[in-house]
Design a protein that fits this description.
Low-confidence stretches: 1-15
Helix content: 55-70%
Shape: elongated
Distance between the termini: 30 Å
Order of helices and strands: HHHHHEEHHHHEEEHHEHHHHHHH
Largest sheet: 2 strands, antiparallel
CATH class of the largest domain: Mainly Alpha
Strand order of the largest sheet: 1-2
Number of domains: 3
Oligomer: single chain
Number of helices: 18
CATH topology of the largest domain: Fumarase C, Chain A, domain 2
Mean pLDDT: 91
Length: about 525
């Protein structure tokens, strides 16, 4: 969005905005200018118009504009802002949308007035203000979608709080837990992703306006007033930093990358559980695809599309980092115009992924009996048997571990699950490893090998026992409601500044307080 000023026609009989018209190479237009215009028109124009209005109001307040010119500018720019009246088609006579809007304003307000519209402002601080305004809206969108997914996970976790399942480490059955416990872990990771978005908001929603090119301006300006008119919650105080910093965009890209990584791990588990050989989960039929040649196939294609979306989002993060790598700390197109489509594209991908995964989670069905049987058929209760030998027989844990490990080897070699173990076999291994029999009764052994007993004994903070997990999930739901209020409040902040901006330009221009005008 950088370049020399362009020519424009003012109202009939008034002076023109006289600037040289430059012949533009058609390849440059095709590769750079046309795509830049299209992106700015679709993503940034709204904020450009708002900055124009806010800046004129500030100039009037500081008496840097004659009232006649200020009123003319507001009567031209205010309706353009409210109607989002911007050119739809790129005109190569102008370098970009900024100058096309300026000429349109000149046609309505006159070239003399427009000549003062950007006093004490540079394209540098204006651009980065626009970029920050666009970015904060993407943060609200992502945070809202993420909150919805977290809510769906909490609901499903409550439904599956007693659903016993094998948990895996190193791709091997490890210990029994519950599906509710697992889903709570996924939600906890997404909760930290939400906190990262919150931090990104606080570092993004700061105004650079008043920095001008980089050294500020010799005119008296009220940076705080202008920031408030546009919904900013503070200033990027150092004027060099205000036009040079792009780390807030790198942070948003990083937030998306971490979120994409968390989602991809969850998707890996979902795809595993939907495989025929596992068959623990089923997607709603609206998310599957039947093979064109194999009638039995029920492909979980929604999960594959999700995996691709988050993979693309990770790729966009790398693009963002590379654009910011090894460039000077100053106003350059790499960190400005070129970076914007990358970060917005990444946010688009993450938004699509969050929406779809939320719907998938809401429609998933669980084979609870199958999951419980998988636990019984395996050896994941081994830890509890070792713990029982410590409690009942007074063994050191390492000795108990050796006894249970030997039993696992024996039963596994014979193709028998834990449920087939008897006291005679236990005592034989105990004598071999410790020189004495176990004191466990048949009832003690059965409890030690019970998945339900395993879960019920794990009731310390954060464990899967229902008496612990239930209150935990209630607390997470309460925390999520606060998060939703936080982001709803931020949306209200944006709605409020737009209402204020509209009211103030109308009041300053003597225009009716009517949004339809």
């Amino acid at each position: 969005m950088k370049g020399s000023e362009q020519a424009g026609q003012s109202q009939a009989g008034q002076s023109r905005v006289e600037v040289p018209r430059v012949g533009r190479d058609p390849v440059y237009v095709d590769v750079v200018l046309q795509p830049g215009f299209s992106f700015a028109r679709d993503r940034l124009a709204r904020f450009m118009l708002e900055v124009n209005v806010a800046h004129v109001l500030m100039l009037l307040r500081e008496a840097h504009l004659e009232r006649r010119d200020g009123v003319a500018l507001l009567k031209a720019s205010g309706p353009m802002m409210e109607k989002r009246d911007v050119p739809e088609i790129y005109d190569p006579a102008f370098e970009d949308l900024f100058f096309m809007i300026e000429v349109r304003a000149a046609e309505m307000a006159g070239a003399d007035a427009v000549g003062s519209m950007h006093l004490a402002m540079s394209r540098n601080d204006m651009d980065t203000a626009i970029y920050r305004m666009a970015a904060r809206e993407r943060l609200i969108e992502l945070a809202t979608l993420l909150a919805s997914l977290r809510g769906s996970l909490i609901t499903l976790a409550r439904d599956e709080i007693d659903t016993i399942m094998p948990a895996y480490t190193h791709h091997q059955q490890a210990q029994p837990t519950t599906l509710g416990h697992y889903l709570a872990a996924v939600e906890a990771a997404l909760g930290r992703d939400s906190e990262r978005l919150d931090g990104a908001w606080r570092r993004t929603n700061l105004s650079p306006l008043g920095a001008a090119a980089l050294a500020g301006t010799g005119f008296r300006v009220d940076r705080g007033y202008e920031a408030g008119l546009l919904g900013f919650e503070g200033l990027v105080e150092n004027t060099y930093d205000a036009v040079s910093s792009a780390d807030y965009l790198a942070e948003i890209a990083s937030c998306c990358a971490v979120l994409a990584t968390d989602l991809s791990r969850f998707l890996s588990d979902l795809l595993f559980w939907t495989a025929n050989e596992v068959a623990a989960l089923k997607l709603d039929p609206s998310f599957i695809q039947v093979s064109s040649i194999m009638p039995q196939k029920r492909n979980p294609v929604a999960l594959e599309h999700l995996r691709a979306l988050v993979g693309k989002a990770l790729g966009e993060a790398q693009s963002a980092y590379l654009l910011l790598h090894n460039i000077p700390f100053g106003d350059v197109n790499d960190a400005g115009e070129q970076l914007q489509p990358v970060v917005h594209g990444q946010c688009d991908l993450m938004g699509r992924a969050l929406r779809l995964l939320d719907r998938v989670v809401r429609g998933v069905s669980v084979d609870r009996e199958l999951l419980k049987q998988r636990v019984k058929d395996g050896f994941s209760m081994s830890t509890e048997l070792a713990d029982t030998l410590v409690r009942k027989d007074g063994l050191k844990f390492r000795a108990a571990h050796q006894v249970v490990s030997a039993l696992v080897n024996r039963l596994n070699a014979e193709g028998r699950p834990w449920g087939r173990l008897n006291l005679k076999e236990l005592n034989a291994v105990m004598r071999e490893k410790t020189g004495r029999d176990s004191g466990l009764s048949a009832a003690d052994l059965a409890k030690a090998l019970s998945p339900e007993e395993f879960i019920s004994r794990r009731k310390n903070a954060g464990a899967p026992a229902g008496e612990q997990l239930g209150p935990y999930l209630a607390g997470r739901a309460s925390s999520l409601r606060e998060t939703e209020k936080l982001w709803a409040g931020r949306q209200n902040l944006l709605d409020a500044y737009r209402a204020r901006l509209s009211a103030e330009w109308r009041s300053a221009a003597g225009a009716p307080q009517d949004q339809n005008l």
